[in-house]
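Researcher: Let's do a round of design. I'm pasting the structure tokens now; please hold your answer until I've finished.
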């Protein structure tokens, strides 16, 4: 046991729940981001079977993102009201089943329905997962633990998914690939049911007075902190950069040069694409941890500007050296995902009123997902269809510059800088 403010802190539970959340969010990333790779791979017949183009795939990613965003907010509120387990475990089961059902789709309409339901189930994993991670973490490890948990979506979804998909498609048809990646989530959900704690319910049970419920009036009153207004706006830009790249980059890498792409073969493109996941994973882990020391604002600002510079440089690089392409994508993704992780994790948590951690995280994620993860890929898909695939990359880079200017209005909340500590009802009771 470690000590925190004179009381025992259950470090064993802290690392146990961070491990489970990390595996869960990794599966969310794998299930979510493997679709564009399967769709755009020359070794897949998915596009021909369903009549689905890469641009429509971008729109499909947008629909999933909008569903994710709405659900993150609504179910984050329900997690504050009903408890973490009642929301998180069913969500994990449903998104895993929907991933498998994606392989059973026989039409675009059926695939849209399945992926929207999948987005509705994945949203609560993001918002409730942030709340569970923060409640289990000592304040001095809040950024670090959120980084560990959130970076798995990049590692599994954007580093491993292209490698897994491009190789499995050499052996299996695309429906089988979807079914294989959906199965592990069921096991994680069962384990999570027995491990996760309910700190808000436990705090209420230990209280001598009646527990105060979370009402809709308290939801509308949770925006008193400036970051509660700024974080959702700037997160739109970070998520826009990420999900435009996730939806359309593989098409840009594999399209012939005469069509505005780089003309790489599927396996080489998958190797280059993996830089997005590797860089994103490191950025989501390292930069939130660094923000524990340097502060949230300066780390976010630096992340935005560096992500834009590296992404623009990537757009000006040809296919001659895939190593250079990989390095540029690595650093662009590292800093882009860093901004996302800081804003959706510790910044959102530190702006939340007592007892409303999942609601606040859900609202911040809602704004970022609905517009940045939902509408942005649709706009980028339209730009790609009209002006070429490189236009989508320019669109993402411009969004990152806008995010930098919006983030200038943030206020610093890192405990190391302002001495901010969560109330007792926002932390897992010592065991």
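Researcher: That's everything. Go ahead.
Model: Designed sequence:
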């Amino acid at each position: 046991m470690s000590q925190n403010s004179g009381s025992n802190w259950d470090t064993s539970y802290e690392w146990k729940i961070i491990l489970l959340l990390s595996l869960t969010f990794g599966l969310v990333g794998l299930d979510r981001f493997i679709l564009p790779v399967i769709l755009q791979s020359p070794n897949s017949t998915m596009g021909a079977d369903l009549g689905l183009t890469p641009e429509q795939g971008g729109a499909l990613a947008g629909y999933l993102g909008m569903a994710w965003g709405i659900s993150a907010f609504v179910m984050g509120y329900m997690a504050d009201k009903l408890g973490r387990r009642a929301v998180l475990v069913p969500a994990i089961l449903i998104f895993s089943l929907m991933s498998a059902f994606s392989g059973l789709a026989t039409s675009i309409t059926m695939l849209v329905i399945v992926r929207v339901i999948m987005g509705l189930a994945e949203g609560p994993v993001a918002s409730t997962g942030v709340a569970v991670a923060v409640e289990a973490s000592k304040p001095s490890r809040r950024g670090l633990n959120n980084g560990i948990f959130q970076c798995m979506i990049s590692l599994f979804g954007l580093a491993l998914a292209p490698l897994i998909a491009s190789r499995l498609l050499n052996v299996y048809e695309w429906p089988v690939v979807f079914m294989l990646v959906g199965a592990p989530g069921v096991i994680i959900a069962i384990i999570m049911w027995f491990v996760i704690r309910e700190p808000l319910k436990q705090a209420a049970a230990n209280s001598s007075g009646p527990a105060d419920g979370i009402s809709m009036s308290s939801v509308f009153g949770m925006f008193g902190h400036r970051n509660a207004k700024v974080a959702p706006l700037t997160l739109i830009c970070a998520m826009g950069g990420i999900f435009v790249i996730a939806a359309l980059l593989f098409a840009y890498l594999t399209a012939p040069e005469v069509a505005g792409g780089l003309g790489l073969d599927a396996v080489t493109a998958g190797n280059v694409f993996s830089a997005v996941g590797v860089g994103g994973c490191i950025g989501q882990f390292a930069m939130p941890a660094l923000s524990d020391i340097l502060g949230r604002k300066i780390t976010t600002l630096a992340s935005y500007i560096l992500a834009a510079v590296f992404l623009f440089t990537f757009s000006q690089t040809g296919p001659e050296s895939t190593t250079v392409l990989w390095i540029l994508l690595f650093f662009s993704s590292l800093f882009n995902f860093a901004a996302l992780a800081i804003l959706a994790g510790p910044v959102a948590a530190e702006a939340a009123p007592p007892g409303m951690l999942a609601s606040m995280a859900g609202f911040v994620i809602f704004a970022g997902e609905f517009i940045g993860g939902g509408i942005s890929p649709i706009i980028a898909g339209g730009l790609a269809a009209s002006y070429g695939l490189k236009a989508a990359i320019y669109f993402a880079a411009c969004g990152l510059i806008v995010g930098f200017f919006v983030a200038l209005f943030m206020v610093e909340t890192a405990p190391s800088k302002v001495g901010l500590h969560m109330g007792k009802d926002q932390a897992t009771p010592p065991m």
